[in-house]
Design a protein that fits this description.
Elements: H1 3-13, E1 17-20, E2 23-28, E3 43-48, E4 56-59, E5 67-73, H2 77-86, H3 90-95, E6 99-108, E7 116-127, E8 130-137, H4 144-148, E9 151-154
Parallel strand pairs: 5-6
Antiparallel strand pairs: 1-4, 2-3, 4-5, 6-7, 7-8, 8-9
């Protein structure tokens, strides 16, 4: 199961309606060549995200706005946060009342025990006309209402206390 499929399952369990917004795009390969056998044009494939960072668009009936999600493995979280920050659409989307999150998945568990997939979420917040990231903690895995209420904590390297960030 891919990280994106894990996020799909996570969202579905919590009552979100979601759509995949990352799609493959095929362009002619460089240098332009045709297949000698059939004459078809060779192509290269790359993936294109909505607004250059959105993999999943999610909506919940009890949550205001749209949640825009970039999904990655645990080791690539910092580069995906940077990808969001570089998008010219990120600040206007946040100002319009939407939420931007990065979901990063990694295996975790005690040494010598079976490892389980763990989701780490960070949410983008506006601070002094730029984006700052805050950890999003689910306070319980059992209670849906508690899952949707966010407990925000500062990321140590951001140097911004949680109570000084305004959204």
């Amino acid at each position: 199961m891919s990280p994106q499929e894990r996020s799909h399952a996570w969202l579905k369990e919590r009552g979100y309606v979601y759509a995949k917004t990352e799609f493959p795009v095929h362009i002619p390969a460089k240098p332009f060549r045709r297949c000698a056998a059939c004459g078809s044009v060779k192509t290269e494939m790359f993936r294109r995200d909505l607004f250059k960072f959105v993999d999943i668009l999610a909506v919940h009936p009890e949550v205001h706005g749209v949640t825009l999600i970039q999904v990655t493995s645990g080791s690539n979280r910092a580069s995906r946060c940077a990808k969001v920050e570089e998008s010219p659409a990120a600040l206007p989307l946040l100002r319009a009342g939407n939420t931007i999150e990065v979901h990063s998945w990694r295996k975790a568990g005690p040494r010598g025990k079976t490892k389980h997939w763990k989701l780490s979420r960070v949410a983008a917040r506006i601070f002094n006309n730029s984006i700052r990231w805050q950890e999003v903690e689910d306070t319980t895995d059992d209670d849906f209402e508690t899952q949707t209420s966010l407990a925000l904590h500062s990321i140590p390297d951001a140097g911004i206390p949680a109570d000084s960030v305004h959204s």
